[in-house]
Amino acid sequence: MTIDTTGDAPPIVPFLKRAANGLPYLAGSRCEACGHVFVGERTVCAKCAARDRMVAVRLAETGKLYDFTVVHRSFPGVKTPFVDAIVDLDDGSHIKGTLLDVDPDPKTIAFDLPVRIVYREAAPVNTGGKPYLTYFFVPA
Amino acid sequence: MSDVYIVGVDMIKFGRYPERTVPSLAAEAALMALDDAGLGIGQMQALYCGNLGQAGGMVGQRLLAEIGQTGIPVTNVANACATGATAFRDAWMSIKAGVYDVVLAVGVEQMGKGLLGGGAGVSTEGLIGSGTMPAMFAQIGMEHTRKHGTTFEQFARVSVKNHFHSTLNPKSMYRVETPLEQVMAAEMIAYPNTKLMCSVNVDGSAAAVLASEAAVKRLGLMDRAVRVRASAMSSNPFAERQLAMPDFSAATRLAAKSAYEAAGVGPDDINLVELHDCFATAEIVHYENLGLCADGDAGRMIDTGETQLGGRVPVNVSGGLLSKGHPLGATGIANIYEVATHLRGAAGERQVEGARLGMTHVVGGGPGMGTACAIHILEKV
Which one, A21, B51, B195, B271, has the greatest CB density within 10 A? Predict the structure, then answer.
């Protein structure tokens, strides 16, 4: 796994994008009617049902660990254990991801741990080793 | 509007039947429910058939090909883990609407072993957390731990209880007691759920014959009838973290509120509950979602045995999804079979004494999909 900045590996999910200079970012939407910030692009607010009030934003890259589990059994070929985390980003959005650089022991992982987002290339289990651009959480 | 009654209900013993077909499993339960009512397929005015694995396969029509092609309308239903209960509710609604007065509802599923979850396309598993069902419900448990300090041991006690209950149920897939130490020491799947805290993928089917009050009287079946006091459903209302972690609690609370209101009863009036214990962690959060205890009190409730057979409100005396098994499309009607059997006073060794009102609950969905919840309140006649 190497730190990716300007490589051409395709993003693993649609809300992970590259800016014109090649640097990755997480795309989100903010509803101008109710203020909710969503991960990904959308045109209608799922919270208040406002239409055409969504504006595209770049999501925050720091936040706090809201919830997690340590996954020991996954689909064939997936390396375990890993920490499946739910993070509350500082802009109020909520995002799922894998938390790296912590001991995968639930007793040592604290709720509300400050984290930040890092972008890296990694190979999904079903792409024959072809790398994709993805994001991870690490302790801030 | 007429009250709606269950006049026949049954399920096959849940297990692994790889040599059978889905329609043949469905046919077996359908005939058992018809026999329980003393009626024939010729008296059914419509069929509502729930199945997930072959949702595009017209399982209801294939079921009729095995038990009698009478030409009745067939509605095939798929709605995640609420599939069977949704078929039952559609049957109930057709009678409520006055369209039919005797109908059949069937739920069936044939499953492989292994983890459920994930999706098509490039896999994000391990890179963007996990899409497995165990991980999803592990986080739901950990959120309860975050809010209320619920412990691994308290979650594990759910499995101890439900595995014990299943020893009293001849239709359960597994009938083995598991002491607390064994549950906690089993293979960790996704903390805090060990293998013994995950429901069992099995094959199964269950069916119910529903009738209007006039039909029950005409057919002379009131002595075996169970009244449907409420049928409620919901989808996931907006929840703050829904897109990051599927929310099963808000939908359950919404459906529970409508069910209690429709029945004109409260949680304290319920004598037994079959709820959706797809994982041990799920049972704990649903105690609170269904109003069986105050928020934050579920850990204490499992510790004090209030939900065990003989306790204040026994939960999952069938053994639950954890031990009886969870054939997705059949589970919703199997839960109705269990509660109806207690209300008829016919549950044998596991009978909840004096049961007058019982509740069934299923809730399903998945990452990036949404939630379907169905709740029924049944009453002894």
Answer: B51
How close A78 gets to chain B, by Cα (Å)? 6
Write the pLDDT tens digit of every residue in A55-107.
999 999 999 999 999 999 999 999 999 999 999 999 999 999 999 999 999 99
* DSSP string for A6-66: S--PPBSSTTEEE-TTS-EEEEEEEETTT--EEES--SB-TTT--BS-EEEEEPPSEEEEE
Q: A29: pLDDT confidence band, cut at 50, 70 and 90?
A: very high
Report pLDDT for B369.
85
Residue B161 lies in a domain: no
Chain A CB within 8 Å of residue B130 CB: yes
CB-CB neighbors (< 8 A) of B243 in chain A: 38-40, 94
> Could A66 and B122 be called an inter-chain contact, meaning their C-beta atoms sit closer than 8 Å?
no
B220 touches chain A (CB under 8 A): no
Rounded Cα–Cα distance for residues B20 and B30 (Å): 15
Per the CB < 8 A criterion, the answer to whether A101 and A120 are in contact is no
CATH code, domain with B95? 3.40.47.10
Expressed in percent and rounded to 5, the helix, strand and coil fractions of chain B are 40, 20, 40
Has residue B25 been placed in a domain? yes
The beta-strand segments (E) located in chain B are 4-11, 47-50, 74-77, 102-109, 188-190, 193-194, 204-212, 226-235, 272-274, 357-366, 370-380
| Phi, psi for B5 (deg, rounded to 5) | -125, 150
CB distance from B242 to chain A under 8 Å? Answer: yes
**pLDDT tens-place string over residues A43-59:** 999 999 999 999 999 99
Question: Is there a domain that residue B131 lies in?
Answer: no
pLDDT in tens, B297-312: 999 999 999 999 999 9
Nearest to A96 among B115, B128, B191 (CB): B128
A127 touches chain B (CB under 8 A): yes
Nearest Cα residue in chain A from B123: A124
Please check whether residue A9 touches B, CB under 8 A: no
B279 sits in the region (left: phi over 0; alpha: psi -120 to 50; else beta) called: beta
User: B322-334 b/e with 16+ CB inside 10 Å = b?
Assistant: bbbbbbbbbbbbb
pLDDT value at B239 more than 90: no
* Contact: A82, B241; criterion CB under 8 Å: no
Q: Report yes or no on B119 lying in a domain.
A: no
Number of domains in chain B: 1
Residues of B annotated as part of the active site: 81, 326
Q: Is the pLDDT of residue B341 over 90?
A: yes
**pLDDT higher than 90, residue B114:** no
- What is the extent of the structural domain holding B371? 4-113+200-380
**Secondary structure (DSSP) of B220-284:** T-GGG-EEEEEEEEEE----TTTTTS--SHHHHHHHHHHHHHHHT--GGG--EEE---SBHHHHH
